[in-house]
Write a structure and sequence with these properties.
Blueprint: E1 4-13, E2 17-19, E3 23-25, E4 28-31, E5 37-40, E6 59-66, E7 75-85, H1 94-102, E8 107-108, H2 111-119, E9 126-129, E10 133-141, H3 148-161, H4 167-173, E11 182-189, E12 195-199, H5 203-215, H6 220-234, E13 241-246, E14 258-264
Parallel strand pairs: 5-7, 8-9
Antiparallel strand pairs: 1-4, 1-6, 2-3, 4-5, 6-7, 9-13, 10-11, 11-12, 13-14
Helix pairs in contact: 5-6
Length: about 290
């Protein structure tokens, strides 16, 4: 395979997970100029320079090649040394975002139809989905710490890569993102009336939780209530779409291999939309 320069409009940036092989991983996906999906994997986020740490809704250029270890057709392996992030527009333009995101793309409204495509020879693993009705936003406790085995493996990797650094320098470089101690999910209906529950794993919800926790003086109940206020109260007044993706591990075996890896929520209606505190949260942190 050969590296090719790709210009990608970033739509998906999941909350980091840790891996014994690749350190912190962020599932990154977006669309090319023709509207087709592309996934960049692996993306070791902590190895990126500050200038390379891309927010959503920005164009990036990077050399990438088809990731032959991943059967999902949208997956490409990036050469992060070549990544350049274009400046993000200072003004939010939802119409421009719609034009880029929906170009040459089917908007799914029936979940089984999408699952069938994932299980077909096309192995579709990224899609835009429009729920017919949001029934609930669910919050449940999760493990509070990362898997100790993976954490130990990552520490060993960091030490092996930094043989000539002091312990203090390694510890300063070895920064693990905090694990969100809750799982967040939507319960929704599709156009057939079928109810489904799907986990949300995007960067935005993780960062919102930590921002709300800080504002709430570390009161977790108050912080999660504020997260629900945005995702169930505020977002239901917007024109809400899901960015869905599969995981390589469960793509072929799970009855529904999709999870919510991002959200798109332009105003509805486009004019006279009442402003909310959430309109002023800095998107650059996502």
């Amino acid at each position: 395979m050969m590296l090719e320069k790709k210009r990608i409009y970033i739509l998906v940036k999941t909350y980091p997970t840790i891996s014994e092989t690749y350190s912190e991983l962020v599932c990154t996906a977006g669309v090319l100029g023709d509207g087709s999906w592309i996934r960049l994997f692996p993306m070791p986020f902590r190895l990126l320079s500050d200038e390379q740490k891309y927010p959503k809704y920005t164009w990036v250029e990077v050399n990438a090649e088809r990731n032959t270890s991943d059967f999902r057709p949208e997956s490409f392996r990036p050469d992060i040394s070549t990544m350049v992030v274009e400046p993000k527009p200072k003004k939010i333009d939802w119409d421009e975002r719609r034009r880029i995101i929906f170009k040459n793309k089917e908007i799914y409204t029936n979940l089984q139809m999408l699952i069938n495509k994932a299980k077909s020879p096309s192995k579709t693993s990224l899609a835009v989905f429009k729920p017919t009705k949001i029934l609930d936003f669910l919050i449940e406790p999760d493990e509070r710490d990362w898997n100790p085995k993976k954490l130990a493996g990552l520490q060993r990797q960091s030490q092996q890569l930094n043989l000539f650094k002091t312990i203090e320098e390694i510890e300063d470089e070895f920064r693990i993102v905090q694990k969100v101690p809750f799982k967040f999910s939507y319960l929704f209906e599709d156009d057939s009336g079928k109810q489904s529950r799907m986990m949300i794993e995007d960067w935005e919800i993780g960062m919102l939780y930590w921002n709300c926790l800080a504002r709430a003086g570390n009161d977790e109940a108050l912080a999660t209530a504020k997260v629900k206020e945005k995702y169930f109260d505020w977002l239901l007044k917007r024109d809400l779409y899901f960015f869905l993706g599969t995981t390589k591990q469960f793509h072929n075996i799970a009855p529904n291999p999709f999870i919510i890896i991002g959200l798109f929520y332009p105003p509805m209606p486009p004019k006279n939309q009442q402003m909310s505190i959430f309109d002023f949260i800095d998107e650059t942190s996502y």
